[in-house]
Structures are given as structure tokens and as C-alpha cells.
Amino acid sequence: MGTINLSYKGEERRQEPRREVDLTVLIVRQNELYRFSSWVEGRIVDASPKGVRVFAPNLPQVNESIEMFCAQPGTNIFLPQNNNVQFYRMKGKVVWKDKKTSQMGVVFI
User: Fold this and answer.
1) DSSP-based three-state secondary structure for 20
2) What is the DSSP string of 53-108?
3) Is residue 1 predicted with pLDDT exceeding 70?
4) Distance of alpha carbon 75 from alpha carbon 62, whole angstroms
5) How far is CA 69 from CA 10, 52, 53, 65, 92, in A?
């Protein structure tokens, strides 16, 4: 995905502070959960108990419901023989997106 600019300059609306993280995540729109061709790889770069900021090449629309699947840090989820990976499933709604920087804010639902 290349270099990521972590400095977001938008209006601060968070109710809780976010912690910087670096997690690979698989993202899918809720209505396309079983269409594996529509899944997108992204990266969670900061998180709070109520939501996350995600970088991804294809962003869903604002107010769209999505699901994200995240493995433990350091797990290579793309190795074919790695079938013992346990994913954390998160449901959320896109609350903002920035196409220029390929990032979005997601609140957990």
C-alpha cells in the first residue's frame, strides 16, 4: 500500500482517545459478505473502544455498513497453509472518508 500519512487534519469529533496500531484487516460491505471478490485489504492505523481509522484502496460510502476481519498482529493471513488463523470480526458504519488519502473513519455497531 505504500507510505501512509497519519496526520489527519479534520475536525476532532472523537469522544475517546485513539491508540496508534498497525493491523491488517479485510473489509467487506455488509450486503456483499459472501462475494469474496468484493473483499478489500486495508490497514487499521488507530483505534478506540468506539471505532477505528482505516486505510484502504477502495472505500465504501459514508453511512454504509461494513464488516472487518482482523487477525492477531504478526499473523500472515495470506499464506495458503495458514488455515488456523482466528479472525476478530468487527461490524461498523463508515462515518467519514477521504478519497485523497484513502482513509475512512468507522464507528463500531
Assistant:
1) strand
2) EEE-SSPPPTT-EEEEEEPPTT--TT-TT-TTPPPEEEEEEEEEEETTTTEEEEEE
3) no
4) 30
5) 26, 13, 14, 14, 11
- Residues 43, 25: contact at Cβ < 8 Å? yes
In 3-state terms, what secondary structure has residue 36?
A: helix
The CATH code that applies to domain 19-75+85-108 is 2.40.10.220
- Which three cell numbers mark 67? 464488516
pLDDT tens per residue, range 46-103: 999 999 999 999 999 999 999 999 877 767 666 555 566 778 899 999 999 999 999 9
- The whole-angstrom separation of Cα 93 and Cα 91 is 7
Q: Is the distance from CB of 39 to CB of 19 less than 8 angstroms?
A: no
Give the other-Cβ count within 10 Å of 94's Cβ.
Answer: 20
CB atoms within 10 A of CB 27: 25
